[in-house]
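Project standup — Tuesday

K.O.: blocked on the structure for the chain from last sprint. Re-posting the sequence here as requested.
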Amino acid sequence: MKVSTKGRYGLRAMIDLSLYSKNELVPLASIAERQDISKSYLEQVFSALRKAGLVKSIKGAQGGYSLSTGPEDITVGMILRALEGDLSVVPMEDGVISNRIESYIRENVWNKIDDKVFAFVNKLTLKDITDDYLKKDSSPMYYI
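H.V.: unblocked you, prediction finished:
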């Protein structure tokens, strides 16, 4: 599995949204500015996130985006699947493996890697990430 720019930027944007949307709509331009991501690119990313039901949007001057549910209910796996599709390390090409060694490798290597990755991304929530980020980011600043 290789996470594309869409997946990486999408995860960053969702973390930003989780941090800044406390009961408010967040304009896409604000996320784009804070994360240094093109607004037009984020529009494509958020379109996929909206279709997956992970964010809600309201159009207009006072519009913006919010999480569709609490950050504790949105996992990294949900976000990455909405943006990347299949997260398998080696996607199944045609469903039929005729080579016995390849079949063995699929079952005993690739599927086991997938199981570990899926377990991790399906457990890690936006709340976990934002809580940890805030804890690490709250260290005092010292000026000389």
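K.O.: great, moving the ticket to review. Residues 100-123 form the longest helix (24 residues). The mean pLDDT is 91.
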